[in-house]
């Protein structure tokens, strides 16, 4: 057995690494961003995940996979966790975790639902609820590196559920090739002209890219959302091979 | 992420990346798997996945047959790939070890 794994090597990628929570802030009433310090973190691509493992005092362990929310800052990584009813890992991370707490992480993992800055061409991001997290990682990774035009369509129940609210609006106002549209399924703000309701083909036409432009599309959200958006996109002529999806649960946005 | 399985698949094959990385030296979620049941090839990342406890069950996105089962015990990984007939793993010629 090798004495030490090379940073970024295979052994490093597979191993559970000790990590420490250094900062946590709320994004909404039920979602929080956590910054973890992970010695030896090898870096990652936008859209990749990290597996987080918790160990209780009695030795019981639970591990879950979370999307990385931002490019790595040295050995610091960010995840944004939406609290799930009865979710033993998400509840702890979104509510109880305190600075200094120790967890273990494994990763980065995943190679399919990723965006690489060297790939040019328009990108459409379609988020349902906390499915915005890996898409935000792509938006942040694009910053200053790529001029690929991005459009984000972000569906959620109410304006209060908006994760990364201020940053998204700031980035959209910078006029740097990112456009952001919000869709509300239950309650909208007063100045909103679109009636509340689930995402439709019209929304994808108005706020997305025409299929002829051959955008790469990333869809992330609950299973029903992902399936419905994928079907709508294919119906609009988008090549299924350019639609990448990631689903994470049955609850609708 | 949600942690309860319902009638619909809660996860997809993207969530298999970590558990599979314990076993395989290559990223397996970008591999194409041919379903033994219907013969369709799909990327492992697109499997419908149920779990995570007591284990992860991957189903073919086309016919819903079980293609993969993965259970982690304290001393072993149990991996049942009997629903997959062929795996095509993207690998440039110059990446040989």
Question: Would you give an account of this structure?
Answer:
Chain A folds into two domains: 10-109, Elongation Factor Tu (Ef-tu), domain 3; 123-247, 3-Layer(aba) Sandwich (Rossmann fold). Chain A contains six helices and eleven strands. Chain A has helices at residues 10-14, 88-96, 132-142, 165-173, 201-207, 223-235; strands spanning 17-26, 31-37, 49-55, 61-67, 76-82, 102-109, 123-128, 150-156, 178-184, 216-221, 243-247. In chain A, the strands form two sheets. Chain A has a six-stranded antiparallel β-sheet with strand order 4-3-6-1-2-5. Chain A has a five-stranded parallel β-sheet with strand order 9-8-7-10-11, with helices on both faces. Chain A is globular, with a radius of gyration of 18 Å. The relative contact order of chain A is 0.15. The model of chain A is unreliable at 1-6 (pLDDT under 50). Chain B has one domain (11-89). Helix content of chain B is 5%, strand content 35%. Chain B has one helix at 17-21, and strands at 11-12, 32-35, 41-43, 48-50, 56-59, 66-73, 76-80, 84-88. The longest helix of chain B has 5 residues, at 17-21. Chain B starts with 10 loop residues before the first strand and ends in a 9-residue tail after the last strand. The model of chain B is unreliable at 1-6 (pLDDT under 50). The A-B interface holds A 10, 13-14, 49, 51, 63-66, 82, 84, 86-90, 106-107, 109-113, 130, 222-224, 244-251 and B 1-4, 6-15, 17-19, 21-22, 25, 27, 29-30, 43-46, 52.
């Amino acid at each position: 057995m090798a004495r030490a794994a090379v940073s970024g090597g295979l052994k490093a990628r597979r191993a559970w690494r000790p990590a420490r929570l250094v900062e946590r802030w709320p994004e909404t009433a039920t979602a929080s961003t956590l910054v973890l310090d992970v010695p030896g973190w090898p870096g990652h691509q936008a859209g990749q995940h990290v597996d987080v493992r918790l160990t209780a005092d009695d030795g019981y362990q639970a591990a879950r996979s979370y999307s990385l929310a931002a490019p790595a800052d040295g050995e610091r990584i960010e995840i944004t966790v939406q609290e799930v009813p009865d979710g033993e890992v998400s509840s702890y991370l979104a509510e109880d975790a305190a600075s200094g707490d120790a967890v273990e992480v494994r990763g980065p993992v995943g190679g399919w639902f990723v965006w690489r800055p060297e790939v040019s061409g328009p990108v459409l991001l379609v988020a349902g609820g906390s499915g915005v997290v890996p898409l935000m990682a792509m938006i942040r990774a694009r910053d200053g590196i790529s001029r690929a035009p991005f459009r984000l369509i972000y569906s959620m129940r109410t304006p209060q559920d908006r994760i990364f609210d201020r940053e998204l609006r700031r980035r959209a106002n910078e006029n740097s090739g990112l456009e952001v549209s919000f869709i509300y399924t239950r309650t909208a703000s007063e100045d909103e002209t679109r009636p509340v309701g689930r995402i439709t083909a019209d929304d994808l036409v108005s706020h997305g890219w025409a299929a002829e432009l051959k955008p790469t599309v990333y869809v992330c959200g609950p299973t029903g959302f992902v399936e419905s958006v994928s079907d709508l996109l294919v119906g609009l002529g988008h090549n299924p091979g350019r639609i990448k999806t990631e689903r994470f649960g049955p609850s609708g946005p | 992420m949600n942690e309860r399985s319902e009638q619909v698949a809660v996860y997809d094959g993207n969530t298999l990346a970590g558990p599979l990385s314990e076993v395989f030296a290559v990223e397996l979620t970008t591999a194409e798997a041919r379903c033994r049941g219907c013969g369709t090839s799909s990327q492992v990342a697109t499997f419908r996945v149920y779990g995570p406890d007591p284990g992860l069950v991957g189903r073919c996105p086309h016919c819903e047959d079980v293609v993969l089962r993965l259970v982690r015990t304290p001393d072993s990984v149990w991996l049942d790939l009997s629903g997959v007939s062929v795996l095509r793993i993207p690998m440039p010629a110059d990446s040989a070890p």
